[in-house]
Amino acid sequence: MAEKPGKKEKIPRQSMPEQKPDVRARNFEEVPFGLPSEAAILEAQRCLQCKSPACVEGCPVGVDIPGFIALVREGKFTDAISKIWEMNALPAVCGRVCPQELQCEGKCIVGKKDQPVAIGNLERFVADYERKNRLAPMPKKAARTGKKVAVVGSGPSGLTVAGDLILKGHEVSIFEAFHKPGGVLVYGIPEFRLPKEIVFSEVEGLERQGVHLECNQVVGRSVSLDELFAQGFDAIYLGVGAGLPTLLDVPGKNLIGIMSANEYLTRSNLMKAYRFPEYDTPIIRGKNVVTLGGGNVAMDSARTALRLGADVSRIVYRRSRAELPARAAEVHHAEEEGVEFHFLAAPLEFKGNEKGRVIGMKVQQMELGEPDASGRRRPVPVEGNVYDLECDLVIIAVGAGANPLLTKSTEGLQLNKWGYIVADPVTGKTSKKGVWAGGDIVTGAATVILAMGAGRQAADSIHDYLMRGW
Amino acid sequence: MFKIVNRKEMAQGTVILNEIEAPLIANKAKPGQFVILKADETGERIPLTMANTNPEKGTITIIYMVVGKSTARFKTLKVGDSYMDVIGPLGKATDIEKVGKVVCVGGGTGVAVMHPITRANKLIGNDVTCIIGAKTKDLLILEDEMRAASHRLIVCTDDGSYGKPGFVTEALKEVLEANKDIKMCYAIGPVPMMKFVSKMTKEYNVPTIVSLNPIMVDGTGMCGGCRVTVGGETKFACVDGPEFDGHKVDYDELFSRLASYFEDEKKCMEEYCKLAEAAAKL
Ligand SMILES: Cc1cc2nc3c(=O)[nH]c(=O)nc-3n(C[C@H](O)[C@H](O)[C@H](O)COP(=O)(O)OP(=O)(O)OC[C@H]3O[C@@H](n4cnc5c(N)ncnc54)[C@H](O)[C@@H]3O)c2cc1C
Ligand SMILES: Cc1cc2nc3c(=O)[nH]c(=O)nc-3n(C[C@H](O)[C@H](O)[C@H](O)COP(=O)(O)OP(=O)(O)OC[C@H]3O[C@@H](n4cnc5c(N)ncnc54)[C@H](O)[C@@H]3O)c2cc1C
Ligand code: SF4
Ligand code: SF4
Ligand code: FES
Questions:
Q1: How far is the CA of A443 from the centre of ligand 1 (A)?
Q2: Of A392, A403, B247, B273, which one's alpha carbon is 20 to 30 angstroms from that of A172?
C-alpha cells in the first residue's frame, strides 16, 4: 500500500552522534556523545503513546515508557527522571547496557514497520540530564524502623536492594570485596561503554541517602554470615555475582598471555592498567589478539585490546553470527572499529615459545549440526579442517560460573548442581533463614536489569519480613 | 585507611617490616593466610603473607622484600602513614597437626612467612628443626625470632659469609639423613628453592608443604591469574592455597608465569626511580 499524500512527514529514528571508529578504537573515551535535547524531543515524538504499550512488557522492571517519553516530548526532563526512578534506580546505566533490541525496543510497535523508538537512548538522555543539572527531588525516606540489613556485593543487584531498603526506613550496610563499589559495572564493563564516574555518582547518591558502604570486605573470609547476624543484622542479601572464570582445558592453557576476560578487564578497568605506568598495574599489550567467545564480555575484551594498541583483534566464536549473544550495538561497534570475526571456530591447542609465552593457536573449523538441549544448533567439527592463527594474547570470554568462596563457607545455604544459590523466584528467599539472594549468583551470568529486578523483588520481601516475619 | 604503627628495615634496607592497624583482620587471621595491600589510588594490589598478628592490639605485621615499583612505594611509607586498602585474611590457613618431628625450611623473605608456621608447630608440641638461608649474611632476616620459634636452628648462606656455607638443601639433606623419623617438611622461599627441597624430601618420603606466590589480582578466585598446576590439576592459589603439596606442584610453569610482566615492571621501576631521583634533587 502506497503512503497517502499529505500525511505528516515521518520522523526518522534519531541517531546519537559518536566518535569516529578509527579515532575511538584508540582511546578509552565513551563512544556515543548522547542525544542533544532537540534530538531527544524529536525522538520522543516518534512514540505513539500506546494504550497498552508492548514496550513496557518487554522491560524486566516495567518502566513506564510512554509515561516518561511523553514528559521528554514536552521538554520536562526532570519530571521524566522522577517517572523512570519509580521503577529503575540506575537509568544512566540501563540506557547504556540493556539489550534493548531484545527487551523494550524489541517489543515497540513502531518497530514492526520502522526502526523502534530509541527507548534506551532516551532513558540515557534523561538520566544524564539529571546528573548534570541535579534538579529532581530526592525520593523521601520512610521513618526509621530500627532494623539493620547487610547487603553483600555492590553490583547492580546489591545497589538496588540497598537503595530500596534505605527508603523504607531500614539501616543498610553494603559489604564489597573489592576496593571500589559497582561490581561488573566497574571491574568488567569498560570505560568507553560505561564511564565509571556514572556508577560512582549513583553509589554516592546512595551514600548521601545514608547507605553505609564497606569495601575490602570479603564476606566468607573477612566475616561470615553468622557473624553478621551476631553483629545485629536482621537480614542479609547476597548479590555476589557470578565471579568465577571459565578457563579452557586444551594443551598450552597456562602459557603466559592466556588469561580470563575477568583478569584482563579487571586489570584494565578497575586497576586502570590502560594508564600504566601512571597507574601501577601492568597489562599485556598484545599486537595480535584473539578473544574466545561471542557475548558482551568478548566484545568488551576485543575492543579493549584495540585500545591497548593491538594491530589485529580477532573474535573466535564457535557458533555463527546469528547466535552471537552480545548486544547488537556492541557487535556493530566492534565491527566498525575493525575487530575481525572468525565464526564456527573452536580452539584446539595453544602454542608457546621457549619463554612460555603464547605465539599461536590451532583452530578447528566447525559447522552447525542438530539442535542441542538449549534449542540452538550444536557446533560440530568439520573433519580435517584445522588452521593456525598467530597471536600473542588470548582472552578467554566463554562464560562465568558461581564463585564458591562465600557459598561453600556458609552452612545451610542450598545450592544447585552448578553451585548457584537456590532462591525463590518471586521473593529471593534462600534456604537459610534471614538470607536472600539474587542477580547472577542465582540465575548465572545474565543482565544488569535482571539483576536489578531480582534486587527489587527481594527488597520488597525483606521489608515484609522485617515488618511482619519470615 | 590502615595506619602503620611500627616499621623496621632489615637486610640492609632490602626487607621491610610494617605493623599495621587492621583490627578485624588481626582478629580472624591464622598462620599461612595473606592480605592484599594497595598503597594509594594509583597503586597495584600486592599480596603479602602475615608474618604476625596481634589481636589485642588490633595489628598485623607484614615483611616484604623490595623487588619492584610497588614494594619500593611501600618502602616510602613511614610510621603514621597509611595504606589505602588492606584486604583479608585471604587464602587457607596452614594445616598444623601434632605429628612429632618436623623441619621448616625458609629462604629469603620466605623466612618471614615461615615464622608463624614454625611457632605454631612448636606450640602444638612438635619437635621443630629450622633451616633458614640467605644469599649472604647481610640479607639474612629474623634469625633470633626463628631461633626462639624452633628447637634448633641451622643458618646457611650461599656465599659462606655466615653460618653453614651453601644452599639450604645441603643442610636439609644432613637433617633428613640424621632423622629418619621426620614426619613433615614446610618449605617457603624462592621457587627454585621450593622445587629442590621438594625433590629431596620426595626421595626421603617426607610429606612437604610449600607456599606459592603467583601473580594475583583479586585474591578471591575471580580472575584465574594465580592459577598453578598441582598434581595435573589447575588450582587457584588465592583460594585453594597458597599452600600446596610440594611434591605435586609444577614449579617450572609457576616460575615461567611469574615473569609475565617482567618487561613492564622493569619499565615501571625505571620511571619510578627517575621520578624519585628528580624529587630528591628538588
Ligand atoms: C564484561 C561484561 C560485560 C557485560 N555487559 C553487559 C551489558 O552490556 N548489558 C547487560 O545487561 N549485562 C552485561 N553484563 C552482565 C551484567 O554485568 C551482570 O549480569 C550483572 O552485573 C550482575 O549483577 P550482580 O549484582 O548480580 O553481580 P555483579 O555485578 O557481579 O556484582 C557482584 C559484586 O559482589 C562482590 N562480591 C563477590 N563475592 C563477594 C564476597 N564474598 N564478599 C563481598 N563482596 C563480594 C563482587 O566483587 C562484585 O562487586 C556484562 C558482564 C560482563 C562481565
Ligand atoms: C600469597 C602470596 C604471599 C606473598 N607473601 C610475601 C611476603 O610475605 N613477603 C614478600 O616479600 N613477598 C611476598 N609475596 C610476593 C610479593 O607479592 C611480590 O614480591 C610483589 O608483588 C612484588 O611487587 P612489586 O611491584 O614490588 O614488584 P614487581 O615490579 O611486580 O616485580 C619485580 C620483580 O619481582 C618478580 N615478581 C613479581 N611478582 C612476584 C611474586 N609474586 N613473587 C616473586 N617474584 C615476583 C617479577 O618477575 C619482577 O622480576 C607473596 C606473594 C603471594 C602471591
Ligand atoms: S530498563 Fe532497560 S529494558 Fe527497561 S526500558 Fe530501560 S533500557 Fe529498556
Ligand atoms: S510500544 Fe513503542 S510506540 Fe508504543 S508506547 Fe512503547 S515506545 Fe511508544
Ligand atoms: S588472584 Fe584472581 S583468582 Fe586468584
A1: 12
A2: A403
